[in-house]
Each structure stands twice: as structure tokens, then as C-alpha cells.
Fold this protein.
Amino acid sequence: MKKIFTLFLLLPLLSISQTNCDTVYVDPEGQPYTATRTRGYWFKANSSFIISAVKAAEGNPIGANSTAQSIEIIQFDALNLTTDTIPYDFSGIGAGFTNPHTSLFHAQNVPLGWITCAVNITKDRYYAILGAKNNSVIPGSQTDMYNTVLPTGERKLMLNGDSTTFWRAALQYSLADGPGPSGQFFHDGPDFQGRIHTIICTGVSSINETTDDKEIIKVIDLIGRNSKLDKNKPLIYIYNDGSSEKKIIVD
């Protein structure tokens, strides 16, 4: 009883994080595309949410044995937010126009698998997610990207429970060699969209601010028992500054 009573005393001080997450797979595979260029997709967000993890898709047989990936998430900064519009396409880029953007996340030549991130997506803003498995990076040379792509045409994804149209996004550079140059991500028409999987999360995280130098000193379950750092299970994390937080680590 003492442990439970102590827990209830802590609850008003919690930095509560109640989060729901969905894994969104972009399927099916259409055909492979191997080049020193990167493909993906862009969309207008129908609601606000968080991208908490990303992963390059499998499917390109040439890159079957590759164990690295490079992915970038960007926000288009200059698109009209009151009416539906599109970024400039390749002909526009070739004519000297640009699509100003902010890079929200870039993973360069990292091990294949889910990459954690915390990218805030805001309703009615425009975003692009590009990436692929990549060849071994050789300094001074361009790196092959083993893009896997969908069939052509307009397609939809369920992002945060909303049916969301997405289109092919392109970059004429390899993300394995560095972030995409300023303004050079573009709309690539109804062509083959690149496949990058995401974990989409929604929820509230507030009450107490967290700091980078806090250390976990104890983890307990919801009835006050000591616990390991189990995934997919609600736990209470107690820190060395006296604060505590209830959260779930999703695998």
C-alpha cells in the first residue's frame, strides 16, 4: 500500500504523455529505380501529428544486400496555405525557379531499420518525405540510392486517420551524400512515388518541461512496482530532479 500511496502523490506532478501511434506502410512495390537521385512523396497535411520514426522500403533487387539508408523530411515554405497548390516541377527547377524548404529531419547513411525522429506536422502545411536504401558512401563520388517505387498515378495514404493524397517528390541528388540543396526538392508529376514507411503519433505531452541533463533513476509500473524499460507498456519514469513522466515506448 505504501508504494501505491506514493504513486498517487506523484501523479499530479507528472509530465503526462498519452500517445497513440500507427505504422503507415507505403505499399505495394511497383518497380525499382537505382540512381544517384532520390525519390519519395509529398502531401498536404489534413491534420497535425508527429512523425516519430521512418524507414526506407525494401523492394529494389539491386540493393537487396545494402544495409544502409538515407532519408529526409522537409516542409515546403512558400506554397499557398489557403488554396491547394503544388511545388514547381522539374521544368520549373530547370528554368531557375526553386521550392524553398526547411529540412526537418535528415538521416545520412545510417543502418537500415526504423530511425527515430520527432517531426511536427502542422495541418494545411506541405511536406515531402524522400529516401531509400543506399550504396556504400565513397568520399568524393556520388552514391547510388536503391529507390523502390509505387505504380503511377494519384494515390492516398491514411495519415493520422485522414485519407491524404500524395504525389511523387524528387531530388536530383543522393541523400546519402548530404541533405538536399536549398529549394531543389520538386513535384515530379504522376510518376512512380518513392516508398518510405512512417510511424505516425498523436497525443498530448505537457505539464512539466524536460531537460537534456535529466537522468532516469527509477522505472515503475502503474501500480508502483519496479519495472524494466519494457516497450509497448505504459510506465512511469522517475528522474533525478524529482520529476516523473508517464509514457509508452512504441516498438
User: Anything to note?
Assistant: The two ends are 32 Å apart (CA to CA).
